[in-house]
Amino acid sequence: MQMLSRTQADEWRIIDQLYPSLHRFSAVVAPSDLEPDDLLQEALVAVLRRHRLSALDHPAAYLRKAILSVAVSHNRTMGRRRTAMAQYNASATPVVLPIYPSDLTELLALPPRERAALYLHEVEGFRYAEVAEMLGCSESAAKKAGARGRRHLVRILESEVAP
Length: 163
Fold this sequence. Notes:
By secondary structure, this protein is mainly alpha-helical. The chain folds into 2 domains: about 1-95; about 100-163, Arc Repressor Mutant, subunit A, CATH 1.10.10.10. It is built from 7 helices and no strands. Helix 5 packs antiparallel against helix 6 (about 130-135).
């Protein structure tokens, strides 16, 4: 709670203004085992520990990059955990989390960077140059991530249709 008391009114205005779009972005890039609100909060806390939002040139882009970084880190950590659990509990039955039907189910199969590139370009309407800035990569890397994501998505959708 100490961080909240240090956060000034201009910081809250920025957070209030950016929250809806950042929450949608978090929902798209969040791993299936992490709530979008938790992802957004963790990224916001990490950024506010180091910077004042009002001091950043593009706080939305900076926060999107932080959200993606937290999502990728979480995926990496969970992958290591799953590998360790598989090694030590080979005989144990795996825990199956319930999967709720969603229009975004196919997107969850994509890696976070590909999901982020597709979402920012196709849904939010950003140019790839802007996407690259938000994701902290070159424009060509953002285009490649979007193209890879699109190809993966097509393969997923085609495999569902095939008998």
